[in-house]
UniProtKB/TrEMBL annotation:
Presence of keyword Transcription: yes
UniProtKB keywords: DNA-binding, Transcription, Transcription regulation
Record's protein name: Sporulation transcriptional regulator SpoIIID
Membrane is among the record's keywords: no
PROSITE patterns registered for this protein in UniProt: HTH_DEOR_1 (PS00894)
Any Pfam family hit: SpoIIID
Molecular function via GO: DNA binding; DNA-binding transcription factor activity
Gene: spoIIID
Amino acid sequence: MKGNIEERACQLALYIIENKATVRAAAQKFGISKSTVHKDLSERLPAFNKPLYEQVKGVLDENKAERHIRGGIATRKKYKGD
């Protein structure tokens, strides 16, 4: 089981880095919860692959900084019907 968790964490990190994906998008792609994605990337990944963690952390921090913009765009689409 532990090997599978480590492998899943690496796959999640690579997916997020390659696609500049959000935690929500990664969770949907892998069929797991957002909480699991977050736990895999923030707690489990640094324990065994620090360089990969640093890369994925950069993407996640960028997503966090831009989330208010995405929310505004989603609200506009909802009310304008785009």
